[in-house]
Specification:
It is built from six helices and no strands. With 196 residues, it is an all-alpha fold. It has one domain.
Length: 196
């Protein structure tokens, strides 16, 4: 598989999870998922950064991006312009549960990582390199794999196995940490500028 094509396809598929993860930070706030509870180690279960608003609004924003990508890919297919083989997430109606699983799964991966981050004694906003950058990727991949397996029993189609190759996973795992760190630096600088 051509390297550039593999990178473009991989980023295309994971972009809804990127959007969900970024949106959860921007539109989050409100009631924390853990309700302020303390774990037996004396630390918060998740912390104030993981909220119901972030989970649901982030999922919605990510799905909006995903639906847009699906329609663009379908349009390119119909007009023989899809030179990169961009994925339409199974087309309608299969794209509904697939895109949901990518977005919601990505945010669940972030929430699970937050639980272990608290156990490791890391504070909210403190960097935990490797984990902070890939938690949502693995969550998105796991949830979309499970969703595809369930759909496979109903339809005989398995979107995950048909669409995501080993090369795609490798590309996402290599590229995402760099993009995540860059996006966080931009976000933190923007916050500082807005406070001035």
């Amino acid at each position: 598989m051509n390297l550039i094509i593999a990178v473009v396809q991989a980023l295309w598929i994971i972009l809804p999870a990127y959007a969900a993860n970024a949106s959860a930070v921007i539109v989050g706030g409100g009631k924390p998922i853990d309700g302020g509870r303390i774990w037996k180690d004396g630390r918060r279960v998740l912390g104030d950064g993981k909220t119901w608003n972030g989970l649901f609004a982030g999922t919605f924003m990510g799905m909006t991006v995903g639906f847009t990508l699906a329609f663009v890919a379908r349009y390119l297919d119909l007009n023989s312009l899809n030179i990169f083989g961009l994925n339409d997430f199974g087309g309608f109606p299969l794209m509904l549960p697939i895109i949901f699983s990518i977005c919601f799964g990505g945010l669940c991966g972030d929430i699970i990582e937050s639980f272990f981050k608290r156990r490791a004694g890391k504070k909210r906003g403190e960097d935990w390199y490797g984990f902070d950058q890939l938690d949502f990727v693995f969550g998105a991949l796991l949830f979309s794999f499970i969703t595809s397996a369930l759909i496979h029993f109903l339809t005989g189609e398995n979107w995950f196995l048909e669409s995501i190759k080993t090369e795609h996973i490798i590309m996402v795992v290599i590229i995402t940490p760099f993009l995540h760190i860059l996006a966080n630096k931009i976000y933190k600088k923007t916050k500082k500028l807005n406070k001035k």
